[in-house]
C-alpha cells in the first residue's frame, strides 16, 4: 500500500505524478471518497500530468468523458454517481473501455459498479479528508 499526503492544493501536481508512479502497469483506477473529497480535482491533475490537452471536467451526466494523452492513448474518466441501475452501465458498453489494454480508466464512485469491474489491472485509491482540510490517499491493488 502507498500513502500520499496532500497538505494543500499546491501539492496536487506532485501528488498526481506520485499516483501515476504507483499505478504503473494498471489500467483501471478507482477513486473512493466522500462528496467533495477531491476525486475530480485529483483526476484533473493526473490528466494534466499525462499531457491531456482538453479541459477535464466531471462526466456526471454523460457517465464518461474521453481524452487523449500526449502519446495518443485514450484516457477515460467515469463518474457513476448518478447511475440508478447497473443496466445503464451495460447499455453504454463498458467492456470496450474497461478491457482496452491501451486505455487508462479513471473511475469516480466505483462502489456503484464493483460487480462489473475487471478482476485484474485494478488499483483502488481511497481519499480521506483530514480535520485540517488536507487529504490522505491510500493506494492499493
Short description:
The protein is of the alpha/beta class.
Strand order of the largest sheet: 1-7-6-2-5-4-3
Relative strand content: 25-35%
The share of residues in helices is 10-25%
Shape: globular
Structural class: alpha/beta
The span between the termini is 8 Å
- The chain-level mean pLDDT equals 91
> What would you give as the CATH superfamily?
P-loop containing nucleotide triphosphate hydrolases
What is the N-to-C order of secondary-structure elements (H for helix, E for strand)?
A: EHEHEEHHEEE
List the domain count as a whole number.
Answer: 1
Record field, number of beta strands: 7
Write the CATH architecture name: 3-Layer(aba) Sandwich
What is the CATH topology? Rossmann fold
* Count of alpha/pi helices: 4
How can the largest sheet be summarized?
Answer: 7 strands, mixed
Assigned CATH class: Alpha Beta
- Indicate the radius of gyration in whole angstroms: 14 Å
The parts where pLDDT drops under 50 for at least 5 residues are none
Amino acid at each position: 500500500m502507498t500513502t500520499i499526503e496532500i497538505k494543500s492544493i499546491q501539492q496536487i501536481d506532485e501528488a498526481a505524478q506520485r499516483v501515476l508512479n504507483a499505478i504503473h502497469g494498471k489500467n483501471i483506477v478507482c477513486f473512493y471518497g466522500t462528496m467533495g473529497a477531491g476525486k475530480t480535482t485529483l483526476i484533473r491533475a493526473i490528466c494534466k500530468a499525462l499531457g491531456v490537452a482538453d479541459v477535464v471536467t466531471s462526466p456526471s451526466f454523460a457517465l464518461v468523458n474521453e481524452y487523449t494523452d500526449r502519446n495518443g492513448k485514450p484516457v477515460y474518466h467515469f463518474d457513476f454517481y448518478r447511475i440508478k441501475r447497473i443496466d445503464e452501465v451495460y447499455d453504454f458498453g463498458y467492456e470496450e473501455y474497461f478491457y482496452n489494454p491501451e486505455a487508462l480508466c479513471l473511475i469516480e464512485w466505483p462502489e456503484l459498479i464493483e460487480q462489473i469491474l475487471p478482476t485484474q489491472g485494478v488499483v483502488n485509491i481511497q481519499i480521506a479528508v483530514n480535520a485540517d482540510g488536507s487529504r490522505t490517499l491510500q493506494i492499493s491493488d
